[in-house]
């Protein structure tokens, strides 16, 4: 809850500073239109009216009870809200989408989807916003259960021309029987032009859904391209799995979100473990593209480069956060970089155009598995710099 209300406070401050920034020479961010601040996922705002000298003088301007907590139950809110044109969009504990006036806290509308995430954990981490092209209405993309909705900003109602009367079913388009799949989306993807690139959360046990990355037309919901994170015959990486593993193995999904370089048209996607998580006897090999950072052409889904942080994961070491796109100055040269953190507390840093590691990475020998039928991978990569943070 603390994280949620902290970000709401940030959004309030952005709204209050909209009309009268103290330094007109600076480009002030007066909106928060992207998950984690911007497509690069920098979590950054350059607002500076509130700092260590005056933060103690802050007083409560308003409060808003988003609701959704069932009596007798505990839950959590993980959503990082958006703020677009002085309206704050968030998700409550019942996975209901709401819009409130960021200046007053007054509720404008609330959308309660029919399709619910039955886990009861409130696991919706954020939203995607697409700005109107002048012909079609602006929209918020919001997920609940297996459905991804396109919601009109002004009314809070699904846009009927998108998908099936306003939503698409994330279980469809995975080359398996949708009725037997469990697929939700707990983190927003990335919007590039008129393309919504989306990851999913799937199960971690036997029979789990595959975690393929899909790109949708933001206006119609049509699938534009699919990247098979468990490669199919003829695709790069197919030989890192047993034959026909793509028909039964699941996971290798992108559940934490992704980052986007709009100028280069490259989307950077971290993936999770293959299922099931704690045993790999049925999937001998390095298992591309599980536990990998993917750099894909945002227009076509074509792989530009990849790096696998864990080979043949049997420790549930999926990548836990979107990568951060940063610039690194080395010997006077500015290098466009992408940094990816891991569950083990390491940071892998690459030239985000070429995929070249910017710091040495060593393949270290690891002990074999003691489980019957399982063969652990002989080595694992660990960056020598920067130092682990955990």
TrEMBL record:
SUPFAM superfamilies the UniProt entry points to: Quinoprotein alcohol dehydrogenase-like
Pyrrolo-quinoline quinone repeat domain: residues covered: 32-388
TM regions (residue ranges): none
Keywords associated with the record: Oxidoreductase
Gene3D superfamilies given in the database record: Quinoprotein alcohol dehydrogenase-like superfamily
Pfam families, per the entry: PQQ (PF01011)
Essential cofactor(s): pyrroloquinoline quinone
Superkingdom of origin organism: Bacteria
Family named by the database record: Belongs to the bacterial PQQ dehydrogenase family.
Protein name: PQQ-binding-like beta-propeller repeat protein
């Amino acid at each position: 809850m603390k994280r949620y209300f902290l970000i709401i406070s940030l959004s309030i401050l952005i709204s209050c500073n909209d009309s009268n920034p103290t330094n007109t020479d600076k480009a002030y961010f007066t909106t928060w239109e992207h998950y984690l601040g911007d497509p690069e996922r920098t979590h950054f705002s350059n607002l500076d009216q509130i700092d260590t000298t005056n933060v103690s003088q802050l007083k409560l301007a308003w409060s808003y009870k988003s609701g959704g907590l069932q009596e007798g139950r505990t839950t959590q809110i993980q959503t990082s809200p958006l703020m677009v044109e002085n309206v704050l969009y968030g998700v409550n504990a019942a996975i209901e989408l709401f819009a409130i006036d960021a200046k007053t806290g007054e509720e404008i509308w609330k959308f309660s989807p029919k399709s619910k995430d039955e886990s009861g954990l409130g696991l919706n981490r954020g939203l995607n916003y697409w700005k109107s092209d002048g012909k079609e209405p602006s929209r918020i993309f919001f997920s609940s259960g297996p459905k991804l909705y396109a919601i009109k900003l002004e009314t809070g109602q699904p846009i009927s021309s998108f998908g099936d009367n306003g939503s698409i079913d994330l279980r469809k388009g995975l080359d398996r029987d949708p009725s037997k799949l469990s697929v939700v989306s707990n983190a927003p993807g990335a919007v590039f032009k008129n393309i919504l690139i989306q990851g999913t959360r799937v199960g971690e046990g036997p029979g789990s859904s595959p975690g393929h990355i899909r790109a949708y037309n933001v206006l119609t919901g049509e699938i534009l391209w699919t990247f098979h994170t468990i490669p199919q015959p003829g695709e790069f990486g197919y030989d890192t799995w047993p034959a026909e593993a793509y028909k039964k193995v699941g996971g290798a999904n992108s559940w934490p979100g992704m980052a986007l370089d709009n100028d280069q048209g490259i989307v950077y996607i971290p993936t999770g473990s293959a299922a099931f998580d704690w045993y790999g006897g049925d999937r001998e090999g390095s298992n591309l593209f599980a536990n990998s950072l993917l750099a894909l052409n945002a227009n076509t889904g074509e792989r530009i480069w990849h790096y696998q942080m864990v080979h043949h994961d049997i420790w549930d070491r999926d990548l836990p956060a979107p990568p951060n796109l940063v610039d690194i100055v080395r010997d006077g040269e500015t290098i466009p970089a992408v940094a990816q953190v891991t569950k083990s507390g390491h940071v892998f840093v690459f030239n985000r155009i070429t995929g070249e590691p910017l710091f040495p990475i060593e393949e270290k020998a690891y002990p074999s598995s003691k489980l019957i039928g399982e063969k652990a991978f002989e080595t694992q990569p660990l960056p020598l710099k920067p130092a682990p943070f955990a």
